[in-house]
Amino acid sequence: MPWLIMPRLHAAIDKPPPLMNLTIMRISLIVLFSLLCISCASTKKPVLTDVAILDIKPRYIEAEVFKRAAEYLTGKENLGNRIIVRTDSSERAGYYFVLILGEQVRDLPAGTYIEGEFYTPKSLDAQVHTFQLPSKLPKSKEIFIGLTGEDWPNPSATPAAWRFTIKNSNGEVLTTEKSYLWSF
């Protein structure tokens, strides 16, 4: 009779019970899902090698437009989600160009800067300014570039022509956009 019990015992050792199979499957799925999540989170976005300027909106902006409620309490300018670079950082009133990009500004490579060239009533020669973007960039597709202070003393004047070139830290051009009159 012992020889009849042996085959059953042998079969039970080779094949685990169904509940144990289910537990192993669940653990395997959790491990695989965790690895998938970790690999997706750890992949870096590719560095932008070009960016599109979708639109440029030029206009004169008074200093009061930039004041927010928090500034009355702290005395410091609160930019919020805006990127504002100026020729004279102590002056806010001036002629601004709002560059609207096709990508988030925070996706631009570190050290990106903008070269702005302008024909203004101030001089017959083109004014050239370099605008360094801050190291910490908010989620925005807009960059406010301002000719302020001595670079734009006349609120009623307008620039005759302009050109913007966005470059990475190595000086490689990411994009260029110019006004219609720049071609002449």
Describe what is shown at a glance:
This protein has 3 helices and 8 strands, in the order H-H-E-H-E-E-E-E-E-E-E. With 184 residues, the chain is α+β, with helices and mostly antiparallel strands.
Global shape: elongated
pLDDT under 50 segments (min length 5)? none
- What is the overall pLDDT average? 83
Number of domain modules = 2
State the end-to-end CA separation. Answer: 108 Å
Count of DSSP H/I helices: 3
Strand content: 25-35%
Helix and strand string, N-terminal first? HHEHEEEEEEE
What is the element layout, followed by pairings?
Blueprint: H1 2-14, H2 18-42, E1 53-61, H3 69-74, E2 83-86, E3 94-101, E4 113-119, E5 127-132, E6 142-148, E7 161-167, E8 173-178
Parallel strand pairs: 2-6
Antiparallel strand pairs: 1-3, 3-6, 4-5, 4-7, 7-8
Name a few traits of the molecule.
single chain, 184 residues, alpha+beta, Immunoglobulin-like, four-stranded mixed sheet, four-stranded antiparallel sheet
Would you kindly provide a written description of the structure presented here, covering whatever features stand out?
It is a single chain. The protein is α+β, with helices and mostly antiparallel strands and 184 residues long. Helices cover 24% and strands 29% of the residues. It is built from 3 helices and 8 strands, in the order H-H-E-H-E-E-E-E-E-E-E. A 4-stranded mixed β-sheet has the order 1-3-6-2, with no helix packed on it. Strands 5-4-7-8 form a 4-stranded antiparallel β-sheet, with no helix packed on it. Strand 4 (113-119) and strand 5 (127-132) form a beta hairpin.
